[in-house]
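Q: I'm building a small set of examples for a reading group on sequence design. Run inverse folding on the following structure and report the sequence directly after it, with nothing in between.
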């Protein structure tokens, strides 16, 4: 029987407290903003452009390194994490960043739950999953991924990381890993903007030696065509 992964989340949150947002989210937000500017130059048949309400989910938000960036850039965010201490830390950090703005809090909603128990909103423009989907229950991942794709609006974006099948943590029975071919099935029908594969010996955020096998992913799902040239890199 395979062992189960047990994370020391308190140590992890302390180790990454001052880390910047993930590069996949930063790039995705820049692409989204660029597409919105291009659409603004091409009004609809009535000659009017409609403002977009920016709605995102941050899956596995932790203490907020990505959620805070989304809030600062004007997004309404549903932040999800299974750890109470993560949600508490995020809410505290969000209040500190509000700078007295009484409307700031209404942009952030939190749920403390497992991914398979999320109350998904009706529609989204973005799902961010920075190093979080590997901790979805493997036997429920298919349902979560299907719901994720169904919830994204036409032209919606996904960015995040998947653990590859050669990652050291793939030996754990409660960690979700994928091969490259399995990942391509999951992304079928999407415009792949970034698919970068890394494999190396390194360390975890808390300093433990580890063999990493990671896929960094940015995709746009059907409904709108990104003008960014797709990039598929293999380490």
């Amino acid at each position: 029987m395979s062992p189960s992964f047990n994370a020391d989340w308190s140590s992890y949150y302390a180790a990454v407290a001052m880390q910047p947002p993930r590069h996949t989210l930063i790039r995705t937000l820049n692409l989204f903003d660029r597409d919105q500017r291009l659409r603004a130059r091409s009004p609809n048949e009535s000659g009017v452009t409609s403002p977009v309400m920016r709605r995102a989910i941050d899956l596995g938000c932790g203490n907020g390194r990505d959620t805070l960036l989304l809030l600062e850039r004007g997004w309404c965010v549903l932040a999800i994490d299974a750890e109470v201490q993560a949600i508490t830390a995020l809410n505290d950090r969000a209040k500190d960043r509000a700078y007295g703005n009484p409307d700031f809090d209404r942009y952030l909603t939190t749920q403390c739950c497992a991914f398979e128990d999320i109350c998904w909103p009706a529609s989204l423009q973005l799902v961010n999953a920075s190093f979080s989907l590997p901790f979805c229950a493997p036997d429920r991942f298919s349902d979560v991924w299907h719901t994720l794709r169904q919830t994204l609006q036409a032209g919606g974006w996904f960015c995040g990381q998947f653990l590859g099948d050669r990652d050291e943590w793939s030996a754990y029975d409660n960690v979700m890993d994928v091969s490259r071919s399995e990942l391509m099935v999951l992304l079928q029908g999407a415009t792949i903007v970034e698919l970068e594969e890394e494999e190396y010996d390194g360390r975890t955020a808390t300093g433990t030696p580890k063999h990493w096998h990671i896929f960094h992913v940015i995709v746009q799902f059907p409904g709108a065509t990104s003008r960014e040239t797709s990039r598929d890199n293999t380490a």
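The beta strands are 55-59, 76-81, 108-112, 124-129, 152-164, 177-178, 191-203, 209-220, 231-234.
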